[in-house]
Amino acid sequence: MLPSRSAVRDILRPARLPARPPAGPHVPPPMLLLKLALVPASILLASLAARRFGHAISGVLSGLPLIAAPVIGGLLIDHGATSVAAIGSATLASVPAAIAHIVAFSWLSRRLPWWACLAGAALAFAAIGWVVTAPAWPAPTLTGIAAPFVALAIMPRVPPLAGGVPVPRGEIAMRVAAAVTLAAVILLGADTLPARVSGLLLAFPITGSILPSFTLPVYGRCATISLLRGFANGLIGFTAFFFALVTLLGRCESKAAAFFAALAAAAFAAWLVHRLRSAAARRLMRTT
Questions:
Q1: Does the CA dihedral 13-16-22-27 come out positive or negative?
Q2: Distance (Å, whole) CA 197 – CA 200
Q3: pLDDT of 254 higher than 70
Q4: How many C-beta atoms surround the C-beta of residue 12 within 10 A?
Q5: Chain-centre distance of CA 279, in angstroms?
Q6: For the segment 97-148, what is each residue's pLDDT rounded down to a tens digit?
Q7: 122 within 8 A of 135, measured Cβ to Cβ
Q8: Per-residue pLDDT tens for 36-85?
């Protein structure tokens, strides 16, 4: 997930450069390059985590704000706390749409091929996103915070899968290439579409689309569901980051202190929930 349209509009606005001849390519703004670099980096990190720790941990890392947090940090350098807090609130309000995406994908993966799951998940994302981004939608922040917990309650359950997964280098390269393509389409299209549509587009879960689309045909539905449940765990950290950020930016004099405290809240929340749910799953396995 990426920050809201207002953030991208700030990022895409070119810096004032010295006069130069019109010939030659235009240099993209540094923040745009940062975002395009962070997307494949997050896919690479999640894929390497799957190699070492398995699909669930890969999903947890994917759900964390690995892309959004550095972008927010960059925005805090150049923008006021009030503006960044507004971006954080808008991003938090879009979480239910991402949750609808992964819940739909997880259920559809039990019966359908990856491309049909992705199409159905995208439709669920658009439908729920259109509802929760309506101006009249009540309590958007509360809805965003609650959404990952609702997802974990209604997603299908599978036995815990222990150990790493031998993800080939060629598959990792294809994952990264697909992520870069999707991210480029989203970033370039978001600034030209109407505000509500582009806001939804920016909330589209890139890692939550690429990783399960590769996992399902190669490793099966149990691995895919484990990955997506991990993603929901990671989104708890995502929501903790933005909730803490929005809250602290309104109370702390130091933007840096608010940012790093929000990072700590994200990491702790995701770790705690994952540990609690892993322990519960192990107890369930021992009793069956």
A1: negative
A2: 5
A3: yes
A4: 16
A5: 25
A6: 999 999 999 999 999 999 999 999 999 999 999 898 888 888 888 999 999 9
A7: no
A8: 778 888 888 888 888 888 888 888 888 888 888 887 888 888 778 888 88
Report domain extents, the chain. Answer: 5-9+29-287
Locus of tokens 């809201």:
4
Report the alpha-carbon distance of residue 207 to residue 183 in Å, rounded: 10
| 237 close to 92: Cβ distance less than 8 angstroms | no
Q: Is 196 helix (H, G, I), strand (E, B) or coil?
A: helix
The four Cα atoms 56, 59, 61, 66 give a dihedral, to 10 degrees, of 180
Nearest to 2 by CA among 80, 119, 92, 118: 92
Note the helical H segments in 79-168. 81-93, 95-108, 114-132, 140-154
Digit-coded pLDDT (tens) for 176-202: 898 888 887 777 766 666 666 766 777
Q: Which residue type sits at 49?
A: A
Please report where in the chains the tokens 């559809």 appear, as a residue. 108
What does the alpha-carbon distance between residue 145 and residue 265 come to, in Å, rounded to a whole number? 13
pTM surpassing 0.90?
A: no
Which residues, 6 or more positions from 267, have their beta carbon under 8 angstroms from its beta carbon? Answer: 64, 237
